[in-house]
């Protein structure tokens, strides 16, 4: 009897301790269905050049349109997709969606715009990753220079990553380091690997005008990047103080809610149209 009670208690305890456990299992099971039913869509967040104020790039950010639960953000399912390996086919699907959209914008007369795509470590486990990516991009008749590949520091440091990165770089893709400075990292890879760009993480940007240490780290990052001829973009910029600090310290590009949240493609089309109109490149 005491034993039974113990069991019951444990079950209750378990559920309270980890209220998301059931949800996690449910997500795991339905990710495969989601892929088959084409339930993933891509939002795009504009990246703004500090010197001109123009939209010079977009980051592709996946969303899951769940039939009953609505729009699910990537943090709720990408980690599970990574754990199960489903991130490999899902990642490929995302790249296809991005390439379709990029082709559609170009066919509509917009000048080509750079789109950044996030890659997971598991995708690099594929021996032919570079070939697969360039084949999808080629099928859509896109120039690789307009596809930027975002990878994280932990991924960069992995053994065996280097050939794929060098091959992608040789094919003309841009390589950028996401969430720069937040993981176990060594500046050594900036020397060894073909990196074009770093993305200053939102956790540092948050400290601007509030924490001198964050400011010092950002200034140091910008200095290193400038000496290494790397482009720098700051992520998660929300306030005027943050923007002007980054401007004053010669950060090249800004991505953040102060300008735009990630938006569905149709809204980006309107944005591109108004920008082309201002510049007079598309009638
Ligand atoms: P990330 O690649 O670092 O993307 C930037 C995240 O910061 C996005 O969240 C974006 O909406 C958010 N963000 C941008 N500016 C601001 C701001 O000013 N304030 C705040 N509070 N947030 C801002 P999102 O779209 O929820 O994506 C979260 C993460 O999920 C991404 O972080 C990335 O690690 C992952 N992810 C998203 N899409 C993909 C994908 O297609 N493939 C893979 N492998 N991972 C993805
Ligand atoms: Mg990213
Ligand atoms: Mg990031
Ligand atoms: Mg991230």
TrEMBL record:
Cell location: Membrane
The EAL domain, residue ranges: 24-276
Domain of life: Bacteria
Protein name, UniProt field: Periplasmic sensor diguanylate cyclase/phosphodiesterase
Organism: Cohnella phaseoli
Full-protein interval shown: 470 to 752 of 752
């Amino acid at each position: 009897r005491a034993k039974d009670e113990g069991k019951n208690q444990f079950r209750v305890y378990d559920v309270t301790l980890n209220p998301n456990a059931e949800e996690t299992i449910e997500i795991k099971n339905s990710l495969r269905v989601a892929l088959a039913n084409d339930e993933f869509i891509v939002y795009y967040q504009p990246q703004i050049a500090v010197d001109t104020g123009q939209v010079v790039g977009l980051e592709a950010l996946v969303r899951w349109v769940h039939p009953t639960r609505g729009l699910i953000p990537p943090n709720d399912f990408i980690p599970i997709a990574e754990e199960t390996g489903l991130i490999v086919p899902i990642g490929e699907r995302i790249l296809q969606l991005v390439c379709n959209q990029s082709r559609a914008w170009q066919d509509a007369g917009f000048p080509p715009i750079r789109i950044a795509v996030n890659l997971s470590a598991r995708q690099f486990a594929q021996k032919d990753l570079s070939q697969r990516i360039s084949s999808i991009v080629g099928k859509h008749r896109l120039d690789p220079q307009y596809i930027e590949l975002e990878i994280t520091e932990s991924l960069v440091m992995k053994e065996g990553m280097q050939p794929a990165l060098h091959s992608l770089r040789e094919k003309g893709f841009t390589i950028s380091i996401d969430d720069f400075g937040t993981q176990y990292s060594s500046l050594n890879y900036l020397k060894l690997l073909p990196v074009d760009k770093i993305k200053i993480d939102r956790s540092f940007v948050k400290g601007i005008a509030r924490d001198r240490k964050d400011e010092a780290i950002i200034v140091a990052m910008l200095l290193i990047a400038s000496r290494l001829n790397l482009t720098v973009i700051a992520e998660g910029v929300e306030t005027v103080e943050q923007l002007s600090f980054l401007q004053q310290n010669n950060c090249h590009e800004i991505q953040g809610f102060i300008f735009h949240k990630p938006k569905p493609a149709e809204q980006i089309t309107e944005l591109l149209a108004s920008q082309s109109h201002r510049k007079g490149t598309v009638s």
